[in-house]
């Protein structure tokens, strides 16, 4: 068990280095969102959403944002965290190809080194056609995972997704 926690701390250190993303542009196809004080989020942010900073798929690219519903949404309401991404109105929209053709993988990272990430893949043309179009308003309708991680798993002292009460969400772009 101690080895798993040490591996988790090493993994977290590597993730912290990746999380320093210049100008919030995806670096090498990866964006990392670090959420600290997860137990406090669970205790105080019920029925509320937490939003990542906006980031770009690449320099001059699509503007995206993540939304984490701490107390879940839809079928995950009250039992799970739900995670969504949305395409936001951005400064480069007139120069981009629409609909967006950039597939996305959303993952809550397994920090024990076991590689059992909570993961979902989204590809344009497969689901949510309106969500991939050029935003007419602030952002498009979000797409995401209604049952990302259960509250029961998050509250377990051996939760593979938390080290030092910190959760890491990774966005990987499909090319």
Fold topology:
Layout: H1 2-19, E1 30-35, H2 38-44, E2 49-51, E3 55-56, E4 63-69, E5 80-88, E6 103-108, E7 118-122, E8 143-150, H3 151-155, E9 167-174
Antiparallel strand pairs: 1-9, 2-4, 3-4, 4-5, 5-8, 6-7, 6-9
Main features:
175 residues; alpha+beta; Apoptosis, Tumor Necrosis Factor Receptor Associated Protein 2, Chain A; single chain; globular; 31% strand; five-stranded antiparallel beta sheet
Structural features, described:
The chain is of the alpha+beta class and 175 residues long. It has one domain (2-174): Apoptosis, Tumor Necrosis Factor Receptor Associated Protein 2, Chain A (Sandwich). The chain contains three helices and nine strands. The chain has helices spanning 2-19, 38-44, 151-155; strands at residues 30-35, 49-51, 55-56, 63-69, 80-88, 103-108, 118-122, 143-150, 167-174. Strands 2, 3, 4, 5 and 8 form a five-stranded antiparallel beta sheet that branches. A four-stranded antiparallel beta sheet has the order 1-9-6-7, covered by helices on one side. A hairpin with a 6-residue loop joins strand 3 (55-56) and strand 4. It is globular, with a radius of gyration of 16 Å. Mean pLDDT is 83; it is low at 13-23.
Helix content: 10-25%
Number of helices: 3
* Derived structural class: alpha+beta
* Oligomerization category of the chains in this entry: single chain
Overall pLDDT confidence: 83
Number of domains: 1
CATH superfamily: Apoptosis, Tumor Necrosis Factor Receptor Associated Protein 2, Chain A
Distance between the termini: 37 Å
Beta-strand percentage? 25-35%
Main CATH class? Mainly Beta
Largest sheet: 5 strands, antiparallel
